[in-house]
Amino acid sequence: MKEDDYIQEGLSQVEAYSSPQQNESATLSPETDGNDGSSSIEDEKLSLKEVIAERATEDEAPHSRNFTLRKILGGDILNARVIRQQLWLIVLIVFFMIIYVSNRYSCQKDLIEIDKLQKELQEAKYKALSSSSQLTEQCRESHVLDLLKQNNDSTLKIANQPPYIIDVNPDE
Question: Does the predicted model carry a pTM greater than 0.70?
Fold first, then answer.
């Protein structure tokens, strides 16, 4: 008995939304049928299924060749059957877009790190060049002579005569 109540309740809801032609086919009751009532319930179930199936596909607009910006922004394009069939393709494209963006982000991060390291290398080169020039400055002969003149306690003196070569024969 409960099943019949559910069917009648469903039929009454369908009648509210259906046209008058659908009401006639969907409102068969067991009392109007001459049989024991089981075939009319099956007819009601079939007709109810048909009405529900028709109602489910009735909201879908036919495929339109011209998609306007209003249809796209309004979401009408998402109701199209083609879009629903291509859902996994859309998910795959979104996944690849996420991978692309994350890859670009990591590359930019690496480029920033490379720039930072190149600046540090440039600074280290400048510091090494500066140190090398200071060492060259301090090792120059004139600078060493000035330091020797300032330190009077040093025993080192500048030679007044040029150096001469002593020849030694290896045979002797």
Answer: no
